[in-house]
Design a protein that fits this description.
It is built from 58 helices and 13 strands. The protein is mostly helical. The strands form six sheets. It has a three-stranded antiparallel β-sheet with strand order 1-2-3, covered by helices on one side. It has a two-stranded antiparallel sheet with strand order 4-5.
Length: 1682
Amino acid sequence: MATSGAKLEMASPGPKGLVPFTRESLEVMEQHSAKKHSEEHKEDLKPNTDLEVGKELPFVYGNLPRAMVSEPLEDMDPYYKNKMTFIVLNKKRTIFRFSATWCTLSPFNSVRRTTIKILVHPFFRLLILISILIDCIFMSMTDLPKWGPALQNTLLGIYTFEILVKLIARGIWAGSFYFFGDPWNWLDFSVTLFEHISRYSPPNFISIFRITRNLRILKIIPLNQGLKSFVGILIHCLKKLTGVIILTLFFLSIFSLIGMGLFMGNLKHKCLRLPQENETETLHNRTGNPYYIRETENFYYLEGERYALLCGNRTDAGQCPEGYVCVKAGVNPDYGYTNFDSFGWTLLALFRLMMQDYPEALYHQILYASGKVYIIFFVVISFWFAFYMASLFLGILAISCEEEKQRAAEKAKKIEPELQQALTELQEGNKAAETKTTEIEMKKRSSTSMITSLDMLDDATIRHKEGLRKSRKKCPCCWYRFAKTFLIWNCSPCWLKFKEFVHMIIMDPFTDLFLTICIILNVHFLALEHYPMSLETNNILNIENQVFIGIFTAEMIFKIIAMHPYGYFQVGWNIYDSLIVFHGLVELYVTHFHGLAVFRSFRVLRIFKLGRYWPTFKILMLTLGNSMMALKDLVLLLFTFIFFSAVLGMKLFGSNYKIYVCNIDEDCQLPRWHMHDFLHSFLNVFRILCGEWIETLWDCFKVAGQFSCIPFYMMVILVGNLLILYLFLALVSSFSSYKAATAEENDEAKNLQRAMARIKKGINYVLSKILCKKQNVPEETMDNVSDIYVKENISDHTLSELGNTQDFLKDKEKSSGTEKNTMTKNGSQSLISSPSVSETVPIASEESDIENLDNKEIKSKAGDGSSKEKVKQSSSSECSTVDIAISEEEEMVYERGKPKRLKNGYGRRFSSAQISRDSKKGKIWQNIRKTCCKIVENSCFKCFIGLVTLLSTGALAFEDIYIDQRKTIKILLEYADMIFTYIFILEMLLKWMAYGFKAYFTNGWYQLDFMVVIVFCLSLIGKSREELKPLISIKFLRALRVLSQFERMKVVVRALVKTTLPTLNVLLVCLMIWLAFSIIGVHLFAGTFYECIDPTSGERFPISEVMNRSQCESLVFNESMPWENAKLNFDNVGISFLSLLQVATFNGWITIMNSAVDSIGVDMQPNFEDNIYMYCYFIDFIIIGLFLPLSMLIGAIIANFNKHKVKISSNIFITVKQKKQYHALKKLMCEVSQKPVPRPGNKFQGFVFDLVTNQVFNVIIMVLIFFQAITIMIQSDEQNPKIDIAVYWINSVFVTLYTGECVLKLIVFHYNYFTNGWNIFDFMVVVFSITGLFLPLMVGYYLVPPSLVQLILLSRIIHILRPEKGPKVFHDLLLPLMLSLPALLNISLFIFLIMFVYAIFGMYNFAYVKKEAGINDVSNFETFGSSMLCLFQVTIFAGWDGMLNAIFNSKWSDCDPDKINPGTQVRGDCGNPFVGIVYFVSYILISWLIIVNMYIVVVMEFLNIASKKKAKTLSEDDFRKFFQVWKRFDPDRTQYIDSSKLSDFAAALHPPLFMAKPNKGQIVAMDLPMAVGDRIHCLDILLALTKRVMSKDVSMEKVLSEMESGFMLANPFKITYEPITTTLKRKQEVVSATIIQRAYKSYRLRQNDKKTSDIHMIDGDVEVQAIKEDSYFDKTEGKSTI
């Protein structure tokens, strides 16, 4: 009754819903609570989310009386009715909930009431918040002022007072709504207690306790309900990520152990100088001294390198120069912190590789020391492993993000009716007041003209419609009167006529077109600024700036006149325009003052004026604004965490950086990246979150030690990345709902279309007059077309269409007629020959045409529709008689009977050529074409062409810098090129004959083939003549032919086109943001990156010696000018884009930021951190120019991916054949158990069988595997020889145990042992382990690595990933990756092809570039293998800045253009900067696009699986799992199960059919039919469980009927039966029998009382009989009860 009463109160809210909490209320609650405990009644209630603590009381409860503010009230939430709680509301209607009992003062105690009033008062929370903010400011200070300690004592007093208030108000207890029931109160209490202790503790402990004081920053979180809720969401995400974290640590440990086995001690290999004759004895003596390795002068160093050159003993490893030998000596690189000598350091190195932090350095070190073959290890770690782990984290977080989004949507649906009701009441109240005000004002102005009164009516209507908005503004009435009087200019009829004239001019479409052109021109002029710039150019730019300011000012004035000031400033874009004008006018006067020239940078805001005419920009900004408003608490939480980390780092390590600064700098000066002060600590944390942390971690190691630095850095990396990823996915989720087609366009965008339509109309008219032709279209028709153009074709490409819309009307006229013809033909088209014609042939078939992806498809059905003929529809040549059947691969894009249209989509379809049999020549031509078509369509011919394509592509890899030295290979390649050329020309001619020219040249893939043939021919021509030799360099395009030959490549290209091309508008918006930052960069840094370099040391002169350019030019060394510019700078917009790209990819960005921070001015010598606040520019760019545009782009790509995925209902990156493989793979992954092996009859074999099949045996084997892994972990480089001996014997023991396991299983399973793949793997491990154990004894330990046996044995650890053996969470995490494998393999093949093409291009252009920076002996473009290594490095966005830096060497001072390269005729070692920029930028964009799609494929698979699990639908896998479990309960396959086993069977099922115990009541309620013997049929159980799962699904009946019919087909010999009862009836029978039995017993007892004389005998008989009857009924009940 209490619950129903609460619901009634909710239904009719009002002041009566708020009831004061009195003693009677407490007594009623206690009575209800006692009654509830006695009845043990379980209520299925949940807390009301609208009445949670910290939220505002909903308005549906009416107004809050003043007497009830800060007073105890009865809890309105039915869930808390009997929980002994009450609520308190403050003035802002915020809900506070308190407990009424247990270890606290009475709610009616005056002291507690006072503390509650203090606690809930908004001022109290504001006081605490201000105190925390002040405390945060003081925490960020390095040196406190004199009055700082006094203020700290005051703040400590406030915090102590807060805790006392909370303790009294809430009570000392750990339950809900008590003080210690909230973890945040524990934090406050602990921090305050430690701070009190620090006042009286010894000095040694003060620092420890003061560090805990920094935790008070986190106190901001509980003060903000939004922050608190996001913390809860992230903790929930962490729970979900538990399995991912464990799996990541597992893989990291495994790869670390492999790394230890492969590279232990290798990074100590260095090139040691060979001793001279007189040094032999001395060096020999030194080698006995363990400290000789510190004598670094004997090592070989490359120029400018800090560490000695690494080397290896393998042929593909780094080699020492002449006079040096490779020995293991010295320390490891990077101060000794980068190595694989122990498990801990190896784990750090692998974690660094996984996080992609400075991987190129470790990459080069290992390849130098161990050999290039180990690139495989890096490909697995840096690409696949890092990709998979990132996909797992993104997938789980995406699922959490989607769940939160759905939860918010459901909540919004629930509160929408209540909100609508409240808004309706408010509107009704405002309507009356607004109408009354309008009437009064209308009467006051009745003497004005009619126009004025009409304007007043319009204004009244506007205000009437926006009544609710005005009611929320709470502006005084006098302001509206002022706005009405002074901001609406209706002075006189003359003025009104002038206003109408101005309105007509300013709102004309051509005016908007003119303004758009002005904005574009202004942007162009802004981008023209550069350094150095001549005075004339500077004057021109100043004049154009004044002109455009004048134009924009005139626009604003005219619009104000046309719209009134009141109407003008109601539009957001007008306000923005006025700010632009105001800035421009102020700039004209301010820029002349020194120090205020930075005002020029705000000119870039004019770029965003384009958004007014660009619907895409408008909708993206709107989406971004809504998203940021929804995620503002998450952004604040991220900033709070960064601030907390910066302060904590400063307190932990700040003093250490000052004390031990000489450990990290030779001059004992603080480096750029430290944590001594707050600003540098903040920058350090920001750099860590950007993904670069390893170098600063090394510095931290040197000043503070490993044990304090690693926890801090791991906290920042893990928690920070969690926050950033969640924010990123939330933004991507918002932008993925962006739809360009639904973007509403404003009047300005429509005006542009109208203007273009009028221009085209005029052009057509002029052309018709010039050509002396009559217009085919009357003027009315032209007007119609113009209207259609405006209404139907206003697209998001408004700006891009300004330059290419001259032919629109012509296309529109053609399309109108074409569409009619197309519709007519589609209805009656047939490929069957007419009676008068012998044969019809659709020629010009297309395998797939990229340009025609969006052409509409139709299907032609023959006869009754049961048989369909696959035919490719196309344009035909005049003599064609061949019916071309479409291939299975082509069916994905071109369906049966599809009409062919031209590239523009409006062309006419070509009908089939009609050839008569009577013509002899026609028959010959017809047969020739038939033959050609059969040849090119033959599968053998296609395979041959594919093989030749691969051979011709692979031949390119041999043309490296050594080709001139390999004469035989060079000659073979020349002949092969000729053969390949002739084959491809022959193929092209055959296809011309078969398909015709029109079809061939309208097919995108055939166009690609034709281009490749031209490339072949040009390369052959280039070899014949010396002056045409540059043509040879285009041979790399030959590899593109692979795209047209393999369906997997075609599918990826099509998918990339589908997902990428529609995002061009979003890409333009992102480029516009980058353009703005580039222009700002030019204004800030143009000409400031120049510096005076000392040629002898290569370092910059200090500012004390050289202050400017003139002083530098007076210092001449070796006739060279040392005033040099940085290679990456901001001197013009083009180079600014490249610099920003390096910042965006975090490659070379530190160097660029250092130059910016050191810059002083033009022609001024830079100084160390003289302009340190320029870091803000790069931080803003990373947030606004990188993070947000990246979210927009990826969101748009995901939207297109989902759109096309829904169309074809499968992954768009797989072929038709791979769809079948996908389903087979899904079935394989879901297959849990295999066919059981029968138990042997022999006793010994049976005993062994029971042993090896026991779960305990498998657990023991897994424990042994983990112990074996631990033996590897405890090893290290240069360990004691005794440990090596112990490890050898331990390995022998493990090999023996694994051999014994293998033998036991062979004894039991016989040949069945080898039917299981896992058993075969174990057998191979045993064989190789025994071989590796004894092989060193035969061939020596030098040829066999000592870690071989350990690594072989370690491979068995992958048993933990077995579906039926390992944890289920691992299987669930591996499933999406395995299901994505077909698509990932296709994408990987495509990215390999792209890498191949770019590697060949790099070999042709950069093979002889001077080796420096990123190009060295390992990473270069001399050979194909080295080029692939470089491109793999660029693919993971690592170190491409160094390679580009080497290619920038094009001046005589940096390289030698006449250098002789031995073995070749090529001279010089200079690079080509322009080609290098295009090369790397294009490759980075393409590879980024491909990798993004790889992530999308896996993450979407995660979401797909999660959505299927959430949706209560059943799949084929669920039914398969049902029957797998059924086999265990019905081994004889009788299709029946005993009713007593049904409970266990239901509990053994997999979700969603699973029914947890206790489930007997649920099973009885399903009312299952039972056969003789209390047996239940499997189909009845399956149907009942399916009905239970899909109870709310509309398609349930259809699914049930399909299941029943499918089961009947699969079991045609199913035994029919008649059910005798059901589970529900049987339960009723048992209950009825029990009642009868009890009644009979009571009757007998009454009869016994009457017969007192025979009581003993009768009682004995009754007891015996009752016991028998009880036992009988108990047996019956146990057998029948479910």
